Prior knowledge:
Blueprint: H1 4-7, E1 16-17, H2 18-26, E2 34-38, E3 43-45, H3 47-54, E4 59-64, H4 69-84, E5 89-97, H5 101-108, H6 114-124, H7 130-143, E6 147-151, H8 155-163, H9 170-176, H10 185-195, H11 203-230, E7 235-241, H12 242-245, H13 250-257, E8 263-268, E9 278-279, E10 286-290
Parallel strand pairs: 4-7, 4-8, 5-6, 5-7, 8-10
Antiparallel strand pairs: 1-9, 2-3, 2-10
Helix pairs in contact: 4-7, 8-11, 11-13
Amino acid sequence: xxxxxxxxxxxxxxxxxxxxxxxxxxxxxxxxxxxxxxxxxxxxxxxxxxxxxxxxxxxxxxxxxxxxxxxxxxxxxxxxxxxxxxxxxxxxxxxxxxxxxxxxxxxxxxxxxxxxxxxxxxxxxxxxxxxxxxxxxxxxxxxxxxxxxxxxxxxxxxxxxxxxxxxxxxxxxxxxxxxxxxxxxxxxxxxxxxxxxxxxxxxxxxxxxxxxxxxxxxxxxxxxxxxxxxxxxxxxxxxxxxxxxxxxxxxxxxxxxxxxxxxxxxxxxxxxxxxxxxxxxxxxxxxxxxx
Length: 291
């Protein structure tokens, strides 16, 4: 725990510099492979303490850098910790489209073999990342944890990225259930930080990129809301890219679709550029720091 005298400088809801926080923790905490920060009070906490809070949520978002083995280990650890604590866990996946839900059900139900399932994975996600997700997918099968595909086909977000939300016709908007695409300022700021010089193309192309991200967020939020409504006894652990998991990504769109669903957000810190971001309490609940 950071002494109160050192916490005062941040203030409640103030910007939290991850670099500064890590420096403070280094003076009071032994070196460990994993450190969990609770952003509400800037405390370092145990996995068990975090799980006790996650039990109160219906949805738990865990961000990831898709090619980070460390992030997937963190996800697997949280899933198992919740399951071991007696929580009825399901796993929501950005990596699979909702139309492939029957294949996910067959995988968990052990009526689909690895070779066939890997083909389903390959048509949904980057084949080179299979080994990074493999442990999570096998654990879900082993323990009978339902998997939920959350994504949509890339054609619509790709069209928005090229021509903006206004390029979508009425049928596409009805399919999405979305009639406007306003980008939260904080989310746009985060995306600018991530992309850096890549935003120095045209303001219109960057706006289109932001709108495409929001369309993706909204589509997955609708899938999450539908799953939660249909499975009231379960806690859905959502695995998605970090910038979908930020409060102003999928979680904010989830509030838009169905307000009041209790949720928590865990952000991993494997991306080295993560150190450049100011994390607010309004952005997440926990940071999972891998040394």
